């Protein structure tokens, strides 16, 4: 797995007859961590309250009852390397990409967007400050 879109962008399928509309598509990004809270909710179980659960119940988004997006930011960390995505912007290793126009991450637009880089780096640093140091 890598921080490139080819490593983090994968299809996600869900089927629940009678609950999810057949053939519908959801275009907002989600993350595999969301499966935990979604599965707990679907099973009628409560989410553990003795720890922080970095997960969102996707059902309101998938069935169309939610009008917002599941995540303002998505974060990834593989050892020390890390990345953040906010909307169409993705920052990793000081490189900035606009995924709306460059899904292949071929053009680093960091130099032309220093305010975006600064804002995303601040968000990424705040998220990383909450994590334990990587053990690998």
Q: Overview of this structure, please?
A:
- The protein has 4 helices and 4 strands, in the order H-H-H-E-E-E-E-H.
- By secondary structure, it is of the alpha+beta class.
- A 4-stranded antiparallel sheet has the order 1-2-3-4, covered by helices on one side.
Topology (SSEs and partners):
Layout: H1 5-8, H2 34-42, H3 59-62, E1 74-77, E2 82-86, E3 89-92, E4 95-98, H4 114-128
Antiparallel strand pairs: 1-2, 2-3, 3-4
Mean pLDDT: 92
In spatial order, strands of the major sheet run 1-2-3-4
The low-confidence runs, each spanning 5 or more residues with pLDDT under 50, are none
Structural class: alpha+beta
Number of strand segments: 4
Content of β-strand = 5-15%
What does the main sheet amount to? 4 strands, antiparallel
Properties at a glance:
136 residues; alpha+beta; 4-stranded antiparallel beta sheet; 4 helices; globular
How would you briefly describe this protein structure?
This protein has helices spanning 5-8, 34-42, 59-62, 114-128, and strands at 74-77, 82-86, 89-92, 95-98.
